[in-house]
Structures are given as C-alpha cells and as structure tokens.
Fold these 2 entries.
Entry 1:
Amino acid sequence: MRIEWKITELLSKVKEAKKDWLYKAGAYLRRTARNSIKKGRTIKRTIFNSFGVSQTIVENVSSPAGEPPRDFSGWRKTFHFEVDNVAEIVAVGPIAGRNRIPPLHEYGGTGLIKWREIDRKGIWHTFTREKHYSPRPTMQPALEKSKTTISKFWTNAIR
C-alpha cells in the first residue's frame, strides 16, 4: 500500500479551515463577552450640591469589583472582532475610543469623571476629578468560558 501526500493541497485546505475557524472563534468570543455584560441600573436621589442647592441626580449602580461592568450607554454594542488573515490572528474586544473606559474596566486604574452643578443664581458649573476604577474584567473570563466551545470549531474543519 502506498500513501501519496499532496502537500500543497493539504496546506491550502488547512489555511482555508484556519480562516473559517478564526471568524467563528472571533464571533463566538464577542457574543460571549457581550452577553456577560448586563444592563445597567440607576437610582434617583435628591442631594444638596456644593452650592447648597437641592438637585435631583440619577446615579448609576456599578457592578461589584471582579464582575463584568454594567452597560449604561450601549457600550457592549461596541464589541467587535477583526481577523488578520496574513498574521492569522483574531482580535476581539470593545473599541477603545470611548474615553479610555474599556481598559479601565478590564484592568482597573484611574480616570477622570466630569459632572455639572447649578448655583443659586441658576448658573451651571462643570467639575472634574479623578476616580479609581476597580478591575471588572470582561474579555479574560469570556475567553476562559468559551475555550472548549471554540476548540470544537476546529474538529473536522479540514475536509
């Protein structure tokens, strides 16, 4: 019995299967990460601001540290994946252009927050201060959760 290898045909089939696998893996990981982020909750409170004026504020209720962050403004819809067929890699995650918030949520750190207050004359004032963000990882837990399913995509991929 003689076995003949058609190496170029095999390599082209492996390359095509890898390309399909990268798209499926990226889409699955994106969906897993999006689903781990729950809708945000808010509460209304009446406070006296620094000018002594009664002001009703809407406050976002954060998720506990260590859990994925909550979505208050459609943030989870910014999760995308991009496949690089030359390097044969897939990148998955939120678009980082939203006030540098995605890296702050994933790894923790310090960022700036802004708010407005009204004085007794009805003039609005803007304030800025630093806020510490506790790590609320999204992508790493999503990868750990979907590893077994993603690896099954490779089963019988080469035909």
Entry 2:
Amino acid sequence: MDSQLAAKLAQMIRGTRRASLGTLQNGGPFVSMVLIAPSADLCNYYIHISRLAQHTQDIIVDSRVGLLFMEKDDGSADPQQLSRVSITGRAFEASSGDLDYSQAQSLFLERYPASAPYFTFPDFRLFRIKAEAGRFVAGFAKAINLTVEDLKQASQT
C-alpha cells in the first residue's frame, strides 16, 4: 500500500467516532452502531457496551465480529466514490484486572468524555476487538485487502 493510501486509511479510522458492528445472531448477521476508539497501531478497537444489548449477547456466544467505517457523505460526490474500511476480528471482554485495561479505558474516555458515568454502571463492559484482516475501498475500483501489518503500517502515517 502506498503512503497516500495508508494516510487516508489511518485518517478515516481515526477520524470516525462511530462504526457499524456486525455480529452473528442465531447463525445470521446483525448490524448495530457503536462508539469506537482505535488503538494507536490500528490493530485493536475498543467499544464500551451494555451486557443487555443484543450485540453484546451475540459476542458472548460467538466472538467473531466485523466493523465498518464509512467516509461521511456530504451529498457532493458520487456515493460509490466514498471510502470505506471493513475490519474483521474477534471481540474479547477486557477485565479491570488486565494490564492494559486502564490504558484502554483512558483512550475511550479521551474520545468520549460524556461516557464516564457508564463506566460505573454494572452492566457496561469494555470490549477489545482484535483485528485479523480487512478491506479498504478508497473509491470506485480502488480496493485492497488488508492485513494486520497493513494496519500497523498505516498507523505510522
């Protein structure tokens, strides 16, 4: 991936505050919206979600998930030209005893300070989505498959 595409990929992920989360529900797809905080290397994505939510119940049964980041559609361009990034991976509940929990919590709260009270609710949990692969569509006919190494490379831009 060239440096221009890597920079666009990193900017898109870092500049997006919400993503579509795909989970498996009774063997079929279920998509919802989540607030997302990417790690510095773009290989982990943190979500803070209620155990009462359907997507959380799905993750507990099957940790395989997908994330979709989309460029904002301002109505001025052909929507097929808008960039999008799909990330596949697995979601793991972060425990407050984990070494990186406080760092992940700080990362999330830095991005969403209004979420602080939710960290006191007993049903809310912090989950880490560990990226395994992805696909970056930088516009019409500009698509590339992504590896974890590609995400790390993009994070350096």
